[in-house]
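Batch manifest, entry 17 of 40.
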Amino acid sequence: MDLRGPLEIAFIDVDETLVQFDIDWDRVRLETRYFLKEADIRSPRGLHVMLCKLAESRPDLLLRALENLRNHEYKGIERSKGTPGAESLLYFLSRKNILLYAVSTNDAGAIEKILKKHGLKEYFAGIIGRTNTFQGFRLLKPNPIAVLHTLQGLHIHRSHAIVIGNSVTDAKLARSAHMQGYIYSSTLQSKRNIVVAKTLGDLKATILKKWKFL
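Output type: structure tokens
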């Protein structure tokens, strides 16, 4: 049964959904803690929480921490790997005339480079990624503003759009934008407007079953 439609656009996460950066996250977190110590901020555990703490009190140190993260992301491109079924999913969507936008918390330039490395860049009409600015950090997903702004510029209603990803952040983006979310995960559960599948192939089959196409 068709869900809504026709489907016109898909916002797709990159890291851990289509490809995997090879990044030493323990090292990134350790180095980020140095910026927190310089700002005299008690160190939380999660990297995103650390960066948010810097954004709240020391935007200048946030920019240095983001630049450090960007350097690690670029280093992680060379040893990166593709996700099985990723190109098949993108080819399927593009053949259905679906506009594809990469949406990521990673640096926008790094996203473009890793997509090119794995032969996936040609499928995308645009990239919504991190810019190493204070305002750019504040607008990262799950904040839906950048996604909704893109829809507005293309004159596409969000009822004709979906989010594809692999994480709670992607599910939150779909919910906050009031869009259907398709999550590739072995641990999350389907609920409300979020459909979870264990493989990208299963996600592709679900999208084909539930949507109409132009």
